[in-house]
Amino acid sequence: MTTTDTTRHVLISGGGIAGHALALQLVRSGIRTTVVERSDAPRPGGQAVDLRGASREVAERMGLMPGIRARLLHELGLSYVDGAGRVFGRMSMEDFDGKGAVAEIEIARGDLDEVLRDRLAAADEAAPGLLDLRYGDRITAIAQDADGVDVVFEHAPAERFDLLVGADGVHSATRRLAFGPEEEYSTYLGGYMAFFTLPTPADVEPGWFSMRFVPGATFGIRPDFDPSTSKAIITLRVDRDPALRGDRAAQEALIRRSLESAGWHAPTVLDAMPAASDFYFDELARIDVPEPANGRVVLIGDAAACGSPMSGMGTATALIGAYLLAARIAETPGDPAAAARRYASDIAPFAEAGKKLMGGGIERMVPANRFEALMSRAMTKVMLSKLARPIVKKMFAANQDELPLPVAEATHAADGAR
Ligand SMILES: Cc1cc2nc3c(=O)[nH]c(=O)nc-3n(C[C@H](O)[C@H](O)[C@H](O)COP(=O)(O)OP(=O)(O)OC[C@H]3O[C@@H](n4cnc5c(N)ncnc54)[C@H](O)[C@@H]3O)c2cc1C
Fold first, then answer.
1. What is the tens place of the pLDDT at every residue in 352-371?
2. What CATH number is given for 77-105+189-284+361-396 in this structure?
């Protein structure tokens, strides 16, 4: 093995939360970083994501909090509505001390991504020449040896890197190329989820995330940072259909069939759907890669481990993973494979905790039929009573909140929270 005293060039496949967070920390550490994102531009969209415990600590250490605070969502809590829009249960943020379904620090996923990209632009300006952000391209083949990774791209010429990081999400191409087929690592969790932005309907209670159960689906309207818009959130309980992948017309048709007689704001949501420029739809899948480091290829974020958006922890785990991997790379100059192994052991407890489904699985979140829809309503009333509050608090807590970060703050003082 040729030993160099530094890790010279890292390739990150995927420019989502994990990819941007890692790029930010690497550039701050003076490491040349290329990000290759399949989409032609950063992908907007996504509903509120929570930052609690370790992920909040990471956001502080990365200097993201001023940007996050400027776009904080002021959610009052979660309310459950019937077909006529009447509220029959509430989980207020205060009643659950910011540890219920709605946390104290909430920001829309797309806004968090903007905060990261804003900081990345500042880091790039402070240390020009280190960052290469490429959109509309992707890796198609890789070959690694003890000294580096040769990567073939769809468009750009082939290149050699010191380390390849797969931050390319649930359907990671890096994972497929370096670890094996998706089926080995992915477990279907019984449904699909869609998110998109819509104009805020006039009679939606400001600040409340309102949700409705119907047979086979739940759908909700959640506050956005801009009060004139809201996020639609739709969860469908259906069998897996591979034909839905990448076919927006088929995805919309499925949503339409599932919500056509759902009452409340279903027509508003369905009317807004075709025009949504940030429409997101994917299967609910748990990803388990037991050992996310394989020589000079390593996985972070959803590519390595997640419990689907039902866990509510994907973004937190992605931020923590990016922070830890960058720290280990900076601390282990010239041996990115060792850095990747150290990261893999650091992230394991967070990844495990992040897969937990706080509100239960799809069977708990989406009623299968009319009877279960009625039962869900009754159960919700019971669960939201004062008596049951401690149990519900327990359900939503005990994920990553209590886990200490294995990297000391001093490790990152050098790269500064610019
Ligand atoms: C548009 C969007 C909206 C989302 N909304 C929510 C939400 O509302 N709630 C929630 O809990 N989770 C949501 N998620 C998932 C959430 O972002 C992740 O769970 C979490 O932030 C971890 O991020 P990640 O960077 O690992 O994965 P992702 O956020 O999925 O990012 C992966 C990135 O890799 C890119 N990519 C994929 N394949 C390739 C390839 N072959 N080559 C190059 N690039 C590739 C994708 O385009 C994407 O930009 C959303 C994801 C996206 C992309």
1. 999 888 777 888 888 888 88
2. 3.30.9.30
